[in-house]
Amino acid sequence: MVHMLSILFLAIDGFAQMGAGIGAGLAAIGAGIGVGLIGSSALESIARQPEAMGDIRANMILTAALVEGVALFAVVVCVLVLFL
Predict the structure, then answer these.
(1) Positive/negative CA dihedral, 35, 37, 38, 43
(2) For the segment 37-67, what is each residue's pLDDT rounded down to a tens digit?
């Protein structure tokens, strides 16, 4: 009985590690897609209205930083799941 419980705890730990890895990967993929969409939209906006380039660029950088910040928090949470 004790042996079965130790195997069960190892399996649960393994699934937690696998979930943390998948979560970190999905967070990075989502951030990459988000920043790519932000960049493409900003370039399209600058091409349509070149005189607003400064405002568009500032908003693009701010929004990309917010997306990357959320992704960084997600990766940190996944790393904490791995080690705690």
Answers:
(1) positive
(2) 999 999 999 999 999 999 999 999 999 999 9
17: amino acid identity, one letter: Q
- Domains of the chain with bracketed CATH: 20-82 (1.20.20.10)
Which residues, at least 6 apart from 31, have a Cβ–Cβ distance to it below 8 Å?
67, 68, 70, 71
Q: What is the pTM of this model?
A: 0.82
Q: Which amino acid is at 48?
A: R
The whole-angstrom separation of Cα 11 and Cα 50 is 57
d(CA 83, CA 43) in angstroms, rounded, equals 41
CA 41 to chain centre: 20
DSSP 15: H
Q: Both tokens of residue 22?
A: 């998948």
